[in-house]
Amino acid sequence: MTNGVKRPNILVLMTDQQRFDALGCAGNPAISTPNLDRLAAEGAMFRSCYAQNPICSPSRASFATGLYPHAHGLWANGVELPEDRTMVSRSLAGAGYDCGMAGKQHLAPCANGPEPRREDGYRVYKWSHDPIHRSAENAFHRWLEDNHPDIWSRIGDTSGATAEAGNIAKGATAVDVLPVEAHYSHWIAEEVIAFIGERRDAPFYFMANFFDPHHPFGAPAPFRALYDAKNLPGPVGGPEELETKPLVQSEYHRKSYGGQAPGFAEYTPEELREARAGYFAMVSMIDAEVGRILEALEASGQRENTIVIFSSDHGEMLGDHGIMLKGPMLYDALVRVPLIVRWPGQIAPGQRREEIVQLIDLTATLLEAAGAGDAQQVQGESLLPMLCGGDATDWRDWALAEYRDSGHSATPPVFTTMLREKHMKLVVWHGAPTTQRPRDGELYDLGRDPTEQTNLYNDPAYRLERERMKDSLLDVLVATEWPRPARKAQW
User: Fold this and answer.
1) Which of 340, 343, 382, 384 is CA-nearest to residue 15?
2) How far, in Å, are 162, 359, 441, 444 from residue 469 at the CA level?
3) Which residues does 101 contact at the CB level (< 8 Å), separation at least 6?
4) Which secondary structure element, helix H or strand E, spans residue 276, and what is its range?
5) Between the chain's N and C termini, which has fewer beta carbons within 10 Å?
6) Whose CA is closest to 195, among 130, 124, 89, 105?
7) Per residue, what are the HEC states of 14-76?
8) pTM of this prediction?
9) pLDDT digits (tens, 9 = 90+) for 333-367
10) Taking residues 72-97, what's their average pLDDT?
11) Distances (CA, A) of 24 to 14, 336, 399
């Protein structure tokens, strides 16, 4: 950051699979998030922040590199981020930051063993992909064994098929309903607090990767008790919409995860209500742990010189439009995520920003705040000028998300691309008409239909608008081709 401002500490709190509306400050009166609501009141909250992919690894790679998935190359879960893609943590470490990470990273395959570590710049590296799969490298399990041996001995072996997401999507496992003091989210907060409390001469960067509110949908009893499942609002829309939506959505209605997990059609009404209550309870527990972290930051005397960012890698369908979990759908439920940024003395409190922003903008923001890296290294744009009182009139008015068979593989593969503009959203489902899945798409007038229930893609009245947006999407894809080395001469 320029203008003589001291380089700030940076604390990123990243959840997994948290919808944009799963916060009280986002206008959801049914969920309890007092600490995050206060964080938003003390900083800025973006109402339209978009992830670049609805699946964990590609989205996390976009944050880590500041690049769109088609540029960074990690196009699906189970793919490793290419070594020549520089992580923001490495850039910050190179600029003199003391860097740490706890929890899930997911920038490489994890199914058959621990995620291989890359040149990431972290001095403190407490990797744990999730609370379920056991491995010697799982830092959460080591912590649990050291601090709660009685609990560790009781939960048994949770590895293998019983921990496969498809088998546990509808209900909680023993690991998910651990007492608060032994829960994964509590462990994340413990690691953050310990890092904040260290003595150091350099500014710090810490990446706290919560696993919740990822399914299975379970939370410790004190947080589950906050919610009466029968009285929670139900999903947006329902299966009746699917007749006008691309065919693959009907497949995901019947089976989630490309056939690997129970679909909406297999949930009873009671199970669906319980899943939603469990999801809300998971968010409330994260909120309580964030509260502990913020208290520790203030007690350490570092509150005023620390940027705190809260966001998520992608969302969760949670029954909206008759679909559970995630996949190639690019509804707001899946690709629109929370974003709160607080920097006392630099970002005016109480801002509610309506600009369309993207997760890759966070990467550019961190690099500018730290004075680290080359602006041409990333494809996002720093949020600091607009947040610190600058002019936002020239801010881009679109967001891009893409799915390239990114989740569980399908036959034939599924590819989708979204372009969101101010009042319109286009989703192209790619494929030649001669394949099993004909070319199709979605078009939503968000001004009239903010919950995306009415597909206008084949509506004659919107034909010109559909074609205009398809032209704009092509322009955006060309403009975001990467890498683009700097031109040093005209020939």
Assistant:
1) 340
2) 45, 22, 12, 11
3) 89, 120, 122, 124, 125, 126, 127, 206, 207, 208, 209
4) helix 269-299
5) C
6) 124
7) EECCCCCCCCHHHCCCCCCCHHHHHHHHCCEEEEEEECCCCCHHHHHHHHHHCCCHHHHCCCC
8) 0.94
9) 999 999 999 999 999 999 999 999 999 999 999 99
10) 96
11) 17, 16, 24
Cα separation of 156 and 149, whole Å? 12
232 burial via Cβ count (<10 Å: 0-12, 13-18, 19+) = middle
Alpha carbon dihedral 352, 357, 363, 368, in 10-degree steps, equals: -60
Is 490:450 a contact under the CB 8 Å cutoff?
no
pLDDT at 485: 78
pLDDT tens digits for range 29-74: 999 999 999 999 999 999 999 999 999 999 999 999 999 999 999 9
Query: Which position has the higher pLDDT, 159 or 165?
Result: 159
Q: State yes or no: pLDDT of 3 exceeds 60.
A: no
Residue from 339, 306, 236, 318 nearest 23 by CA: 339
Q: Are 216 and 169 in contact (CB under 8 A)?
A: yes
Q: How many helices (H) and strands (E) does the chain have?
A: 15, 15
Residues 6+ apart with CB under 8 A from 360: 52, 62, 63, 66, 67, 68, 378, 379, 380
For 85, 115, 130, 190, 194, the CA distances from 183, given in Å and listed in that order, are 33, 22, 11, 11, 17
What pLDDT, in 10s, does the model give residues 102-118? Answer: 999 999 998 888 899 99
Residue 476 reports pLDDT greater than 60: yes
59 near 51, Cβ under 8 Å?
A: yes
Identify the pLDDT of residue 208.
98
3-class SS of residue 351: strand
Q: Which of 432, 426, 402, 424 is nearest to 415 (CA)?
A: 402
Q: Maximum distance among all alpha carbons in the chain? A: 70
Distance CA 444, CA 452 (A): 6
Q: Residue 371 — left, alpha, or beta (φ > 0 → left; ψ -120 to 50 → alpha)?
A: left
Distance CA 122, CA 100 (A): 5
Residue 377, burial from CB neighbour count under 10 angstroms (0-12, 13-18, 19+)? middle
Answer yes or no: are the C-beta atoms of 255 and 404 closer than 8 Å: no
